[in-house]
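New to this. Please check this record:
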Amino acid sequence: MLLLGLIGVPVLSSCSSDSSAAFRTMQLAMPADMAPPANPSRPYLRVKAGGAEAYMALAYQDAQADGTRQEVWYSATGEVVRLNNGRLAGTTGMPRDWRQIRYETRVEWFANTATPQRYVRWHDEMPGYRMNVREELQLQRIAPPADVHLVDVAPVLLAWFEERVLQSTSVERLPPARYGVLGNVVVYGEQCFAPDFCVSWQRWPLPYVPPVATAGAGQ
């Protein structure tokens, strides 16, 4: 079984140590129908793309000019997902890829939550070689959604944000992206690259989530 059922040729860092780490990591990734270790020694990312699911392993982190660290995740068949500050920074090896995703500003989750944040994103699409697609976005708090691919935790236990496209140079109208945040960490996200192709990701295992208090508890 291919992990995501996708064609995958990874784009590796020019650094040989990063490349070696990536290939070692690919051996640790496993399909979603295989349970991950109860106490894994390294983090995983549960990814759903185009109807297929997989666990991806963290290969390495790249320091960025703005002081953040970009996480690079690999599947055993070579698909790559990159995350920065909880949002997608690029993918490789999927039927639809956004190879490079660039935001003009860093989102501080929980900052000014009562006021929507507006900013610009650029991305490069494959196939089709569509470069520097520009989108004006708005991020705002929303109520916990019921239709997300979150597993083993109730959506109500997370803070939720919706990232909606206001204007775009693309002709395709995409559904909003959504993010589930615990503390100041994005533990779940979903984003569409096309009207018929969406990707969701969830950190695995999740950080500890306290249970919801029920009426009469402790009485």
Observations:
- Confidence is low (pLDDT under 50) at residues 1-28, 215-219.
- The first strand starts at residue 30 and ends at 31.
- The radius of gyration is 18 Å.
